[in-house]
Structures
1.
Amino acid sequence: MSEISLHPPKSVPAKARGSKPPEQEIIDYISKFIALSDTEIRAILENINIRNFKKGAVLLREGQVSSLCYFILKGCVRQYYLKDGEEKTTNFYTEGQPVPPYEGTFKKKPSKFYLACVEDTMLSVGTPADEAKLFAMFPHFEAVTRVAVEDELGKSQENMASFMINSPEERYQNLLETRPDLLDRVPQYQLASYLGITPESLSRIRKRIMRK
Amino acid sequence: MSEISLHPPKSVPAKARGSKPPEQEIIDYISKFIALSDTEIRAILENINIRNFKKGAVLLREGQVSSLCYFILKGCVRQYYLKDGEEKTTNFYTEGQPVPPYEGTFKKKPSKFYLACVEDTMLSVGTPADEAKLFAMFPHFEAVTRVAVEDELGKSQENMASFMINSPEERYQNLLETRPDLLDRVPQYQLASYLGITPESLSRIRKRIMRK
DNA sequence: CGCGGTTCTTAGCTAAAGTCAATGGATTGA
DNA sequence: TCAATCCATTGACTTTAGCTAAGAACCGCG
């Protein structure tokens, strides 16, 4: 697959051609819901707080109270629960995905899960204060955020339904189709956990599928 | 269990004592997020559209496009997908719960699931226009709604995690603790589906638990 | 009251996932 | 570079859930 790029600007370094700066991810995300003016884009970029984390870094621990909202600019973050000493992976977040502060924001409850970087990861970290500042500058962002959260709620519900309805083998097949990148980025035993099965079972499922 | 009621007002009819009118459910829900003035309460009650449905009535079908938002005042609504001719139940909504318009609102996508009344059910049915009207009257309702949706997203994520992490037997135990009312209101085979298992398996699980 | 349908349970069998243990390959770090 | 660790795979066995079928209990309705 070769990238199509008409008239690439000559001043851009070769290695950057066809790619985009990580901050663009967050602009692209918001642009799904509203057309942003240059002023707004600049304000957003000036008001986000970008941080880098090493592979394995833990962003949130069980019991911690946090109202931070993350957005993945580059890399991969895993959400997992600790049950009977086992890590139970319940989500993977990658480029262009928000990591909402679930029970954190309104109720200020201690987290029941962990967030850890699967790879070196670049994040935008948002606080309620950052949010309030942007809402004050652009009041209609409040409505945009609401719509975005509704959209995330829809996806969450759909994900849950998909998990409930399908068998482990079907869930693996779905993963192959919808998030094939995860297979390369994430160790098998974490994927297995995410699929709700043991690594041994995933191994057998893979073998079963192979000989078809 | 007898109800505790100090100095019940003498003017209240006997049958109403200790209970509340169904519309109150929606006021109670919003009051979890913000203190409502009498004016606001009146405006809300005047602007909601209450409808009654018979047991078995279907509110939404697969393929239909809808941006209606329901709120259960009395009764029970079941959400289910049709897969290989089988009904796969993914949610039960009861008194005091909102039924958000998932993919419906923003993306206007056809629904992948059904909504049907498990019992005779009284609903508040909200349209985007109703919403807009209330937001125009009370602009801060926009923020309240956002927080409420965030709260629902948090619950959704937690429900999904709980389903992913636990075994069918543990899921049944959880249901006993968190929503015991469903056991009486909903037929077993629908509960089984909701737990991600067959009616036969649920029957065996119940027997297994009995003799402990 | 009894009939017909629905729902729940039971049983026997199959298929799949869990568990335990061992192996071998890859990765990491000293 | 080598050793230690981690991880994926495999095998044998157990447990659990799915499937089919049949019977029992429980409706609602005439």
2.
Amino acid sequence: MLDQSPSLDLVFHALADPSRRVIVERLIDGPASVSELARPLPMSLAGVMQHVQVLEASGLVRSEKVGRVRTCRIEPSTLRDAERWIAERRTEWARRLDRLGEFLSPDPKESS
Amino acid sequence: MLDQSPSLDLVFHALADPSRRVIVERLIDGPASVSELARPLPMSLAGVMQHVQVLEASGLVRSEKVGRVRTCRIEPSTLRDAERWIAERRTEWARRLDRLGEFLSPDPKESS
DNA sequence: GCAATGGTTAAGTAGATACTTGACTTAAGG
DNA sequence: CCTTAAGTCAAGTATCTACTTAACCATTGC
């Protein structure tokens, strides 16, 4: 497997799992403990912990432990990195289409 | 009803692989055959075919075969679906922060 | 102190993933 | 017709993934 941008790999991989997206959506509304994140999910706490670890490895989530409670919060800059990757490709695609359109039927207003 | 926008699971999973992102980036610049897509990738043609199938299953790529060559092209609407999912979460996150900010230090201009 | 709560670690497992090779099919092109 | 290019199909395999259970550790609250 190529390894050209490990972080995007991890971010998209993290987002590819529905349970992890549920966690992300919960954290959008504010920080939460692991057991709070676990509540709506049909799996063991240990399973949720593993999802949190995947999210944290991707940079989408940060967490810190105070007392016996680990509080997780979202890291929006990582979310933006992923969004930007997609947006840049879409933009480039549209730009190419424009160039192609001009070539196929030149706009009189644009030509001298 | 047709499953017109296949699940985000498949889209994000497709984007999580660097070889597949290379394929997507190539297709942004216009349609290409499978062996053209394969050229920069250090793997067998059959391996590339499998990546193309994953991309097609996700809705990110469409392809059609003419003669003996299969031509692949990108499907930007699927790319946009993924982008939108992220953008909506980021926006919601920012909105929440605003509300929180107002609550913590009310802006005199906004209060009666 | 002790029970309950919240989390962590380790080990196991079924199924998915990312490849491979090799045997085929189809279709250009000379 | 024969060769080569492009792709397809099937099978095999090593590794990864998404869980599980069970034992364990660390705080909190009575």
3.
Amino acid sequence: MALKSIKSERRRLADEVYDQLLTAITEGEIGPDDRLVQERLAAELQISRTPIREALLRLEQEGVLATSARGGFVLYRMDEGEVKELYQARAAIEGQAARILAHMNDPQINAMLRRTIETEENIASPTVRDYFEANRKIHRRFVELVSNRYLLEMFDSVWNRAVSFQLFAAIENADLSQSLGDHMNLLAAIETGDKSHALETFTAHIQEGFELQLRGLAG
Amino acid sequence: MALKSIKSERRRLADEVYDQLLTAITEGEIGPDDRLVQERLAAELQISRTPIREALLRLEQEGVLATSARGGFVLYRMDEGEVKELYQARAAIEGQAARILAHMNDPQINAMLRRTIETEENIASPTVRDYFEANRKIHRRFVELVSNRYLLEMFDSVWNRAVSFQLFAAIENADLSQSLGDHMNLLAAIETGDKSHALETFTAHIQEGFELQLRGLAG
DNA sequence: TTTGTGTATTCTGTATACAGTATCCAAAAA
DNA sequence: TTTTTGGATACTGTATACAGAATACACAAA
């Protein structure tokens, strides 16, 4: 008989806290004016400060939180220069992912991508947050299917930094049909099998997003 | 009068421990057979387990250490598939860096790059470790000069994972003059100002490194 | 020998205690 | 009023204590 191993992974309280905080930030329950204090959180979650501290420090290291002058942590705020840098980092990762996907040019994988785009774009009346999440899922799918854990890790790292602003979704009133077309174009670029072309297409797409973002900030 | 702010940054014991561990790994003082145990380290450094634990967990999260079945942490060992993925991640970051540098095509920056290459390649009788460090410094310089903190952070993250193996330096008997020429070629690619060409040149350089690496592992 | 089982040991995860430091506040001085 | 200054307060960083879990070990049984 061959039983499956039970202990999938030792789950610590700190991991639980980390996840809870991150989803709370994603869902907007923790906003820019909230201050996260170790003792308060410990009291609220009925556990000691130790795991809380661990989770907070991790989020700080990942650039999601920053220490407040008055003590405790707050959401990290980026200036315009940093936003640009973050978009460049996105381009590095997703561009390379596209390059590899084009090189593989696997019909099965491409079909999966098409399905994901169709599914995720199919939202009834999306809020900015809905759009951010759908967009994230689509872009993440591209990277997932490369099967490179480091690229995926860096992807998540970049997007988590943006989660509190819904940074990559400043498209408030752009219509989704436009967006759908864009994402299908990305897929089409991969399907040509031309590595360089795929990379350039992704880079351009992300660059466009950045410019949209800037105009959104200005207007 | 305007005095400079003193508190550059609050330095915690955990940061100190983190740095010490990382250099110890870099310099080969901590090898693949060493087990790092919280209590032992605490006794050795004469501090409590708390900051030790913090540093160890951070190194684990960054992929430098892994938990041992017998308790404690050991150097993380990569399999061949992971090595390939790491090289792809490198290509993503350094390729994009090259792209941006080519786009800027700034004579001053290019001069700085040339100077770094000449300085670092000028080692008398390099060991593998010396070569690894020189190579790292050169490649890091390219990314530094892009002035993008996220790219630089990801660069460090990738290279730190490799530090315990001197992964990117499996060139034991390749001669340095060859290497010097290679790095100068990278610079030349940037100086053409052709973004796509610069990226492809870097990608190819890294790909070559990977193949050299594989042959090194096999032989 | 090999195999199994109970016990000791080791090490971690979490809770708690304590001291230091930075901010805030309120009362005294200008 | 405005400014200064002493102290209360709030929070953190580090140390320590404790319980639980996993591994290693030793001894008994086959």
